[in-house]
Amino acid sequence: MDIIISNASEKPIYDQIYSQVKSAIMKGVLKEGDALPSIRALARDLKISVITTKRAFDDLERDGFIHSVQGKGSFVAPSNPQMLKEEILREIEAALSKAYELSRACGVSKAELAEMLRVVAEEV
């Protein structure tokens, strides 16, 4: 699993790890039961604090993407179709919110924006 950390990013390092692992799980690159690197090994490989890596793993576990077994490590959690759907819906909502903000900044009406979405949906 390749995780790329950008010191120039506005996102905190733990959030960059969280996002990349979550994305790999959602895209099926990491599958149910796959072992993740240990917190210490990942911290060493990325040359970051163990505390930072632990925070990312804690957040992933809290959100149901991974589960940890004492003395054995962290693994991709069994997929929960409802949880995955909710996550995708949140991403869609964020993208639509950004599109709406851009449309307001450029003076595009709601009707024009809705028409643009309809056209995009027909093209797919």
TrEMBL record:
Coiled coil: none annotated. It comes from the Bacteria. The keyword Cytoplasm does not apply. Keywords: DNA-binding, Transcription, Transcription regulation. CDD domains: WHTH_GntR. SUPFAM superfamilies: Winged helix' DNA-binding domain. Residues 11-79 form the HTH gntR-type domain. GO terms for molecular function: DNA binding; DNA-binding transcription factor activity. This is GntR family transcriptional regulator. It comes from Candidatus Borkfalkia ceftriaxoniphila. The lineage of its organism: Bacteria, Bacillati, Bacillota, Clostridia, Christensenellales.
